[in-house]
Amino acid sequence: MVRHSAAQAPNEARSYRDIPRPPVWPVLGAAPALRRDALSFMLEARRAHGDIVAMPLGLRPAVQITHPDLVRHVLIENSTNYGRSPMTDRLKFMLGEGLVTADGERWARQRRMMQPIFQRDKLDGLIPIMTAAVEDMLVRWNVLARSGTPVDIGAQMGQLALDVITRALFGKSGGPLAEDVIRCIPILQEYTASLFWTFNPLAGKLPTPNHRRFRAALATIDTIILRFIRERTAAGAGDADMLDALLRARDPETGAAMDEKALRDEVITLFLAGHETSANALTWTWYLLDRHPEARDRLEAEAAALGSAPTTAGDLNRLRYARQVAQESVRIYPPVWSFNRLALDADTLNSYTIPQGTTVFIPPWVLHRHPSWWEDPERFDPDRFTSARSAGRPRYVYLPFGAGPRTCIGSHLALMEMQVVLTLVASRYRLRLTSDHPVSAQALITTRPSNPIMMRLEPQAKAS
Fold first, then answer.
1. Over 60: is that where the pLDDT of 178 sits?
2. What's the whole-model pTM score?
3. Domain for residue 88, yes or no?
4. How many structural domains comprise the chain?
5. Is residue 5 in a domain?
6. What is the maximal distance between C-alpha atoms in the chain?
7. Which CDD domains match (predicted)?
């Protein structure tokens, strides 16, 4: 593969109009194709046209980049020129001005305040909480397994991920709240995703039936979160959970605390993003493991060798294969299938001048399938992430949690949770798909299965 420098001298640059592009609609550009099937469209665009492809959104310029040099340029070397795009603003209807959606000084202030909460030594204290949530789920599974009734593993992982994030944030299990939250999350996801490819300036504001359902679902979530915040504020912050840490957080530069609006936005971001990405990642992992029994067998052997529930960082360090399984799963099914940036000023990418206001798509879904960097990229192979096979792989071809200043603050937490869940479940149950038909991925806000994944729960004592 010919390597190109991300930024070329201006006198070598060609116009944005010269960038290869797939067939697109007049006026509407690539938006109809992205709305119809973004994953296939982006993947085929790279295959047919290379590592920089024009994907105009209506009359607005946009490009997809899938070379590590280009990704490094946008996210690292010239990151100050690339801010949050207007597409990300669609998430503000749901998340407000949390870390995912904020920009500029507001984002920098919130990041400074939250960074200490996500230090690894602090997160290690959550391992027993994760273990307790999984143990509670396995008790419920005893009844389900005896009945022999297949379960929707996505729903099961959704309930588990919700329990983990609720215990971590608020110090208690979701309990009766879980049903309301799980009912509301798909409504929020599907409505917000529907806004991404529209050019209507009133999108998200018109009182359509879907909009009213969205507002009602969001109000339900807000009521739950604000109740926790107000009760804890009245009681005074302690040192028990992540909400206490948020209440105690101070900007190291100004000494300011978060007001209730900022607390709400950060808590709902952690609550929804932490729940949804973990639930989907675990769901896809069980799907992949049953389709690759040799990997499942190795995971089960490692879980058995541990001999007890993981409760410390040292335990997780012994679960190397579980971590590789998690890493490979989020390679094939990255939690966020694409993210984007907006060029605040003109720049040069691969000798093409891109104008100010260009949306730059960086799709992990495509990068993780790039044949120049991943051998047989569609194959599930956790050993890709051994030290020997990872050596020499470019950093910016693997972006399950983003990169650069805006790397997902919860990336370590997500992998920890996956290790704990995979190990505990694999030590007790073997999960079997009820159908051999492949399940396709759906590009909403996160990468979700297009249909429920139904599985049977086989206790390990009976597993063959």
1. yes
2. 0.92
3. yes
4. 1
5. no
6. 71
7. CYP132-like (cd20620)
